[in-house]
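To close the chapter, one final illustration. This time we ask the reader to focus less on the individual chains and more on the assembly as a whole: which components sit near each other, and how the overall shape emerges from the parts.
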Amino acid sequence: MNLYQAFKTALMGLKANASRSILTILGIVIGIAAIIVVVAIGDSAQAMILGQIGGLGSKTINIEPGREPQGPSDMMEALYSDSLKERDVVALKNKANVPGLKDLTPNVIVPGSVSYQGETFRSMNFGSSSFLARVLDIHPIEGVFFGDEEIKQRASVAVIGSKVKEKLFGLSTAIGENIKIKNKNFRVIGVLPQKGQVSIINVDNVVIIPYSTAQKNLLGINYYHSIMTEAESEEIIAKTANDIKLTLRELHGITDPKKDDFRVMTQADMADRAKTITGVLTWLLVSVAAISLVVGGIGIMNIMFVSVTERTREIGLRKALGATDNNILTQFLLEAVLLTAAGGAIGILLGAGISYVATIILSQVVAMSWTFTFPVSAALIGIAVSTLVGLVFGLYPAYKAAHKNPIEALRYE
Amino acid sequence: MKPEQITQASSPPPIISVKNMEKVFEDGETKVNALNDISFDIPRGQFVAIMGPSGSGKSTLLHIIGLLDKQTSGSYLFDGKKVSDYSDDEIAHIRNEKLGFVFQSFNLLARATVLENVKLPLLYSDTKESLWDKMAIKAIEQVGLSHRANHATSKLSGGERQRVAIARALINNPQVIFADEPTGNLDSKSGQVIMEIFQKLNAEKKHTIILITHETYTAELAERTIHIRDGKIESDKLIRARREANNFIK
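The assembled structure is written out below.
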């Protein structure tokens, strides 16, 4: 019996119970499809996040207060951390401390909404400087961005995103009008072009005010939520990041780097972190989906046992006609493998279809450029795993079939 | 008269030679002696009927000499060679190439056609697949079912099904055909057709045929009958007045 004949025999066995065969492989189909969907969406989510991080410019180095989170309790600590202050900004600006640093801006986040004559919009309110506009590459289409003078004077001026303008002012002019943040008036001096998501910020929803105004006048705090810096060139990013760390440690009296009360993140670091997070999430979901493959495999094993019992006479006959134990083993093992491999192939097509549709829907819902990528590696792994499931779960029933005594098998009613 | 006495010294060794064969079935603590001290030779080309009431051990004997089972003690030479020297795979190949089986309940693949059923043994042989159809058609011809070759076996009558089973047994041109109550499930007319085929195969193609039956009038179509009772040979004799199958209907 050559391989082709073995395949034909196995196929004949499966065709004899076509509807049962189809139902049997459903578990595998669903398992593989779930894995493909998870990996495909995970991959495109990762691609999207990395693309956005890239939007920040590769020379950007971000400094955030608080320790690198080591566990759930550290998250709270990071949230309330107030380690970045005016003195840090002064020290970092000193070329003697950080020679590679080109420019920086402290950032303050002001939670809440913005309103104008009874219209309210939940905007993202940032206290920052014109440096942010340069890094994000956003320049007002109407009016101007505020400069250092406004920051020094803690001026109540604001630059607003296109959606903020549209929601509050509609078609009328926004420049020169007063909007309210936390019950304080801010004069609109600039309107940003429609730009969508850049890095972690949706530019269309922002209201940017001088960081000094946000810090002192609105929140009454003496620290910053982050400091965004830019290195002179890409080559010296690592060195500059290190200089920043050394400067802040000295200033904060920290000798043990493990006790840093700040985090310095380059774009590469942020990309790595995003990759880690999406990777962990993807694998978590994949392992959940993999459980359904095991369940599917047990289903295959169950049906193969039924099939072997049902065909006891056939097995006896084949043996009487000259089939060796190996011939029988091959036949039943091939049946199981054909089932699961077919299930895997269908699952891949189904999974690819679902993730394609999901990508379209998601990009509509979150209004982001979310592109579909067919996960080739996941598809190959899917085929391999489903075949393996057939081998593993088909082996025992096939072994049982192969070792049936031909007389017992022929007598079986 | 012992059968050995009638075989000539110059002839080739008997196709089947059994000496002091015993078969014990053990099921926990109970032991059943299914076969006791069985000895006989079957020369090539003989048509032998093994007779006995149910439970006499005749099926057990057929299973052992048909290489589907192994004896507990004693020796069995098939085609002059000790069967116990063969591996399981070699025995499977002997079954495939040298033996043909016909069962009381036909044992066909219900969903397959006549042609597919007859070709089944070739799947386990070394025969080239391009020859399969030709061989199967020839075998089907021998049992007179050429007009039914592409029918599903589930659509055939009992007699026709048994003829398919015979064609299947014939396809590898076996040295010995084992038939276990081949007419047991058939009406006497169909049974007669089956027995005619066996007689013809024995007479014209010189196939050795070993037939198990409990019907005396079927056994009388053979040239020799071995009676078994309680696992022992009760009698072993050549039939003087052998009958032709075509006039055995009552």
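The longest helix of chain A spans residues 267-310. Chain A touches chain B through 23 residues (CB under 8 Å). With these observations in hand, you are ready for the problems at the end of the chapter.
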